[in-house]
């Protein structure tokens, strides 16, 4: 896998992972179904999926070559990007009018 494909893979995984808590009513995406799912569970899932996505990026970077040390700026930008990628799921879950409510 080349560097460009690895970047696109991480971005695609981040977009899917950032929206997954909003489209699923299951606890931690595989547990029992809760309707409505509390916001605290969604935030916990968002944090866990962000860490998994970050781990995927670190793994791919290590496979392509030497991992570079990162400062706090990298992590701040990564979290902001992850939250921004989750905006469509947030709109779908909280701002859209549901017909059956």
**Overall spatial form:** elongated
Mean pLDDT: 90
Structural category:
mainly alpha
Unreliable spans: none
**Main sheet characteristics:** none
Helix content: 55-70%
Q: Indicate how many domains the architecture comprises.
A: 1
Rg computed from alpha carbons, rounded to a whole number of angstroms = 16 Å
Count of helical segments? 4
Report the sheet-strand fraction.
under 5%
Number of strands: 0
Task: Describe the overall structure.
- There is one protein chain.
- This protein is mainly α and 101 residues long.
- The protein has one domain.
- It is 69% helix and 0% strand.
- The chain has four helices and no strands.
- Helix 1 packs across helix 3 and helix 1 runs parallel beside helix 4.
- The longest helix has 26 residues.
- 16% of the residues are buried.
- The mean pLDDT is 90.
Salient structural properties:
101 residues, mainly alpha, elongated
How would you summarize what this structure contains?
The chain has 101 residues and is mainly alpha-helical. It has helices at 3-23, 39-64, 72-85, 87-95.
Spell out the blueprint of helices and strands.
Layout: H1 3-23, H2 39-64, H3 72-85, H4 87-95
């Amino acid at each position: 896998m080349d560097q460009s494909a690895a970047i696109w893979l991480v971005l695609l995984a981040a977009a899917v992972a950032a929206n997954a808590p909003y489209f699923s009513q299951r606890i931690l995406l595989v547990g029992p179904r809760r309707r409505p799912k509390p916001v605290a569970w969604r935030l916990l899932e968002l944090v866990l999926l962000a860490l998994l996505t970050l781990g995927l990026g670190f793994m791919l970077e290590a496979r392509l070559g030497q991992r570079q040390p990162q400062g706090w700026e990298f992590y701040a930008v990564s979290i902001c990007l992850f939250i921004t990628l989750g905006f469509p799921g947030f709109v779908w879950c909280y701002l859209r009018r549901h017909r059956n409510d």
